[in-house]
């Protein structure tokens, strides 16, 4: 398991600009606009938790308000869980002994 690395302020600003251009200036989870609510603290969130995908890659980062980021925590988001369950259904698994 890799240790979590703190980003420099410049790297954090870079990721926030890239993500805002990709997804808009709103929370990925609740959709609230950061531009209209300047006091709402925006955070960088690993969509797939850092413990599973331990890297700072744009493909796995989203902008989230602090409340949504804290609520999600270190869990997989439900849409991803549903997708995984739809593709890998337990009834399709064969038990081999």
Description:
By secondary structure, the protein is an alpha+beta fold. It has three helices and two strands, in the order αββαα. It has a two-stranded antiparallel sheet.
Number of strands: 2
Radius of gyration computed on alpha carbons: 16 Å
Task: Tell me the structural class.
Answer: alpha+beta
Sheet with the most strands: spatial strand order? 1-2
Helices and strands, in order, run as HEEHH
Residue runs with pLDDT of under 50 for 5 or more positions: none
* Number of separate helices: 3
Query: What proportion of the residues form beta strands (DSSP E)?
Result: 5-15%
Major pleated sheet: 2 strands, antiparallel
Helix content: 25-40%
Global shape:
globular
Distance between the termini: 31 Å
The pLDDT mean sits at 83
Summarize the structure in short.
With 97 residues, the protein is an alpha+beta fold.
